[in-house]
Predict the 3D structure of the following.
Amino acid sequence: MAYFFRNKYIVGLIFVTIVIFVLMGVSTTVERSKANVVEDIVGNILSPVQKIFYNIGESIDGIINFLGEIKTLKMQNEELVKKIDMMEQENRSIQELKDENRRLREMLDLKQKTDKFEMVAAEVVSKDPGNWFNTFIIDKGTAHGLQKKCAVITSKGLVGYICDIGTNWAKVISIIDADSSVGSIVVRTRDIAVVKGDLTLQNQGLCKMTYISKGENVISGDLVETSGMGGIYPEGLLIGKIKEIKPEEHGISKYAIIEPAVDFERINEVFVIKNTSNLVTE
Amino acid sequence: MRSFITGIILVFAFILQTTLIQYIELWNVKPNLIIVIIISLALIRGSVKGAVIGLCGGILMDLFLAKGFGLNSLLCMYIGIIAGLISTRFVKESYFVATLFTFLLSFVYELSFFFLRFYIWGETQFLFFIKNTIIPQSIYNCILVIPIYHFIMKINNWLEKRFKISRKY
């Protein structure tokens, strides 16, 4: 034993280990509204560089996709021209007017719905390094009027919420992360359930809807929205649609696999709802 | 000078890991560049440097974690120490040693991370994650280690040369 304490490296190692244990304890118990100084500085320095790299990756991905598509484009084009000819005959004025009417109505609804949101546009600068989580960093922070627990959406649907924030960056935990759960409602049947991230599904970009009682007749294809309960998300934000329904192991209830409306693999521009806290009834 | 360049390599690896690595996913799994760099550096520099490098890399990863600081720092530090201890017992400049131990250490790292972060909190599908995340990632890491180990050895040799020359003056 005495030998161990004479070796300065081992003493150092024990010291560092204990310090990390203490920090671990502190970081999991202390509730804070903003990241600490060190995190803030590191975030402020790294996120502009990460933004550049993220954008490079995106443009390379775009070019590769474009090159890959060229082969199939011509074939598709011919097919499409044929289809268009057919469709033009089919599409008569009444149908068109009907569609237009419905579309306009929807747009009006959507505008009324989103009018109460004050939104800030932000760009994704980086994603988490490992395979176990699904979080990312955006390029806006407290300097742009955002706070912890603001909801984050895209034009397609719900993304997640801000779980940690610095001056010029914010960490967003997405709804498919295993630590996330969202109070939700099935639009057609008004059944209430909870959408949770699942560790086994998150790498495929899917999540899970649990606590659906057996009597409820949800079917695959049903749309799921936020219910406004739970204190984080305002109601009426689209989460996604039900892909598959399975019975729970214990047989009392069933769960559904949800395909989120947002593609988390290729996420770039998001909107943060600045006044989330005013819209949520706790 | 040496530690400065090591720091730059780590930060650069971190930036790549959080931005571009997601485009080279295989089997829905991305490799962990930072672990690969920590293992390669520790194999060359020994256990004390390995511990410091591992600790720094781990802290970087922890700062960007959603909640809970420390698990990566601790695991990476010990991975660095183990890799450093290994290097004194095996031929240093062997790609075979690097590949083998990257596989083993990545496996140990991911497994302990899963165990401490999820398993003890109730995520019990052990075999699923070993099969679908941990083993694919370990394999991916040990493919990645060959070019990285080569690159780091090149830099190390270059630095050693420079260091000796500057000592002469």
